Amino acid sequence: xxxxxxxxxxxxxxxxxxxxxxxxxxxxxxxxxxxxxxxxxxxxxxxxxxxxxxxxxxxxxxxxxxxxxxxxxxxxxxxxxxxxxxxxxxxxxxxxxxxxxxxxxxxxxxxxxxxxxxxxxxxxxxxxxxxxxxxxxxxxxxxxxxxxxxxxxxxxxxxxxxxxxxxxxxxxxxxxxxxxxxxxxxxxxxxxxxxxxxxxxxxxxxxxxxxxxxxxxxxxxxxxxxxxxxxxxxxxxxxxxxxxxxxxxxxxxxxxxxxxxxxxxxxxxxxxxxxx
Length: 276
Prior knowledge:
The protein is of the alpha/beta class. It folds into 2 domains: 8-144, 2-Layer Sandwich (Fructose-1,6-Bisphosphatase, Chain A, domain 1); 156-274, 3-Layer(aba) Sandwich (D-Maltodextrin-Binding Protein, domain 2). It has 9 helices and 10 strands. The chain has a 5-stranded mixed beta sheet with strand order 1-2-3-4-5, with helices on both faces. It is globular, with a radius of gyration of 18 Å. The relative contact order is 0.15. One of its GO terms (molecular function) is 3'(2'),5'-bisphosphate nucleotidase activity. InterPro entries: CysQ/Inositol_MonoPase, Inositol_monophosphatase-like.
């Protein structure tokens, strides 16, 4: 793919595409007979590639990757110097080398992703994300902040007047226990999907109207998709309506709502009723 572009958004897209190509090649090489081996190899190949390219092209920046040792630990004085470095850094790349490892290892599934996001201390937004890309290798596309998709405008009234039911992306393996009741309350239809990146990408492209998660996640699960979603003009917040924040001492970010802006107030009100 040649030398990477120097602008951060385009670099994130380039990096997600590079990792995606490697993962598709690995799928073809190893096949699906040994699921455990494919999962482990996928995590390692993508992580090593992204880490190597960041060290080469963005050596001054800190990195938080799901596959880093101790990445899930909240920062304390005993935690590694890597954590101290990222908390003091002005720029931090937040990486999920393979989001949806389960789906990656299932033949025929395309709902898995590569997440590359950049957090900056000088960012104007509360979430601090200034660039990001979500690679969807098996769908042959990358969504990025450098060229955010043009989200089709549609008011809730127009959608319901046309007889279309609100579509909520839901985890195929561990949806929040309240989500079925919430969907019934607002007359929504649940659409099961794999990785968080694939679900938020589906909101970005208009395939679904919202994604609600409350079952526990980490910053790398949502950073890149949220960067793209907000660049596209979508609403993104915690399920209580508060701002999403990244590069925190504790990388756990357990819940989020990404949706069309015209749906945000209605969904947040429904979440108040059902997620307590």
